[in-house]
Amino acid sequence: MRRMWINLVWVGSPTWAGRAEQWQPGAGRGSTVDVGTLASPATLNIGWNESTGSSGYSSYANTSSAIGVLDAAHGTLTAQLSALNVGLTAGRGTANGTLIMGAGTAITTAAANIGMGGTTEGGATGTLEVRGGSMSFAGTDTSLNFGSGSLTIADGVDFTVGSAADRLGHLRIGYNVSGVDLADAIDLTGDQFTAYVGDELSVGRVANVGWQSRAKAAWCWARTAWSMSVLASPATLNIGWNESTGSSGYSSYANTSSAIGLLDAAHGT
Fold first, then answer.
1. Is 261 a member of any domain?
2. What 3-state DSSP class applies to 76?
3. For the chain, how many structural domains are there in total?
4. Is the N or the C terminus of the chain less surrounded, counting Cβ atoms within 10 Å?
């Protein structure tokens, strides 16, 4: 019987001071991790902090944290997922997740969230390191979301999301849906990235949640190829989009939300 979700590493919601460290089950050569099935897709969490609590005293901050690493560079990782979360918080504390993909990695998911979830304590960061393998998207309203973190592609590797025939629904870079903190995405290094996007490409986007969110994103990659939608179904391109309409309810606390986006296509396609 398959386990339908795997947590690397998890801090449960009741705590405000819990800590969890990393686990690297795929670091050894020959290791195999098989997660989910087409009929019953799983959720894969790498560095997931569910904490939403507090001590009840302002002098005792929420110090919960989760750190998780899944290194599949030399093993085999096959995953049929409903969601992939690499560095995720639920509203408090911090989380840090790292996924290293290798030649034996094959991931299919409806959504991938990298470094998502801002908090007043620092929020989430995520790292996606691609040394090979593939990440494909299947289902309705598919999305690849980067909050804060990095995407690194090894020399000689072409990392492609979507295809001309089956496009990724949403690609969001520097995406803040938390209402607080800064989504400071993303450090982009490596070889070649190709994206086929059907509905939305956003670089620096603040969702209409709260009044303190900030987003800052720059995509300046020399070897990036974009394909945005098709003539029959045009897409939306957002570069620095602040959706916030909220307020604190107090005149002394202004709406401080901001969105900064840069898409530099000077040397890409």
1. no
2. strand
3. 1
4. N
